[in-house]
Write a structure and sequence with these properties.
Blueprint (H helix, E strand, L loop, with lengths): L7 E8 L5 E7 L6 H15 L6 H19 L6 H7 L2 H17 L4 H10 L1
Antiparallel strand pairs: 1-2
Length: 120
């Protein structure tokens, strides 16, 4: 069990006047309970299903995903609001999907792998 997979997320904490962006990286806990995986599987099915949902329903799905990522996957290292405001808009949906896929399937992003290699 020495090779426990982890995932990383980088959130914007501040944008300075000069356009400089201050970010912070967070790692999932070293051990994820299987209950988190189960929850992610249900969430993935709900979030990724293609249907003709209203905009309100789509926003509710995203909100549910943000809560899961902040509270369950990253164990409240940041709040849902910090996650919501710390994601770069054009990449936000892809980042959310990547996080849920990691939790449901254990697929680490290449960025996380590189970060962990540098860290060790």
């Amino acid at each position: 069990m020495a090779n426990l997979k982890r995932q990383m997320i980088e959130l914007v904490k501040e944008v300075k006047d000069e356009g400089e962006v201050v970010t912070e990286k967070f790692l999932t806990p070293a051990f994820l309970h299987f209950s988190v995986v189960y929850e992610a599987m249900d969430l993935a099915e709900e979030v990724f299903e293609s249907s003709n949902n209203s905009l309100k329903e789509e926003k509710e799905k995203i909100d549910k995903a943000l809560i899961f990522i902040a509270d369950r996957l990253y164990n409240k290292q940041f709040t849902k609001e910090e996650l919501f405001n710390g994601l770069h808009g054009p990449n936000a949906i892809a980042t959310i999907q990547e996080q849920i896929i990691f939790a449901a399937n254990g697929v680490q992003s290449d960025e996380t792998k590189k970060f962990l290699e540098k860290k060790n």
